[in-house]
Amino acid sequence: MANNGPNWDGLLKWSLSHSDGASPSRRLSEEDRRWFMEAMQGHTIDSISRMKQISQIMKMPEQLLESQGVTTDDLEGMLDELQEHVESIDLANDLHSIGGLVPLLSYLKNSNAKIRAKTADVLTTVVQNNPRSQQLVMEANGFEPLLTNFIADPDIRVRTKALGAISSLIRHNQPGITAFRLANGYAGLRDALVSGTVRFQRKALNLIHYLLQESNSDCRIVRDLGFARIMIHLASNQDLEVREFALRGLLELAREESERNLDRADVNLRQLLEERTRRIIGMSDEDLCAAREERELVDILWTTCYNEPSRLRERGLVYLPCDDEMAPDVVRDRFEPPLRAWAARRHDEIDEPTVQLLLGPAQ
What we know:
The chain is an all-alpha fold and 363 residues long.
């Protein structure tokens, strides 16, 4: 940043002169200049006005912002503030009406990876448990740049944040889920699983579990793309959440025995469950309590696949006194973000028409 910070005054002159098609040389009134400078210095104003100001900044070309001393840190701070505003579901829905949604989506193509990642983070907040904003983002073609960043961005943090935004965008949003299938999204999830980046793997496994619960027919896609082998490997990961998510995915595949989505005779699957059982049995009391979900998942998977009690159940290690009074339902989507949970829309189960799926590798 320049010594005196960004030239917000000059930026306002440019923004106001271009927003209505007037000449850039239009004289700036003292009232407009004072309004903008006070806003940019953090004076108290109402949220809608502040969001309008941020939207104006986002419409400015990168080169202009740079010429006025605006740094990446400045833009990240601006996006942080916008994210705070759109925590309110009403303000999130107002973002489009004040002209801020399209400029925000354009930041997904910003030349700086930090800005692309932060933009996806803001969009996650905008659409999370918010059917109206989900629809607005889809109508504004926001799904496409998110998918591009998820599949092809060279920065792993951008890919991870984009996947988080996609996950929030398509939850309880049937058009979004269909678009994800048709756009070869599952191939992108497969790439995420083998990325070696724990946070990326967690988000991918979380979304896979949700999608499999939403549609049993998706189990065939997962099977055909070789997800079972990958999830068997990830179920031995050092990260507890990755292990649990992988076991959840395997359990969803195992539930439909007639479809043979999971080969129960696979020696690698049996070895996995035996190995996880041995490790759980050898855990300290503290680790056993922390691995509550893993204990239950291993037990249910064993019983589902081999139709006999697991060693964990025989040893009384499935439910322990340290567990909550009510054991969690391990097949329920317990990872729904709490933000605006009251506004979540639970769509009715409907028979989906068969769609042609693109199962080739992600580009």
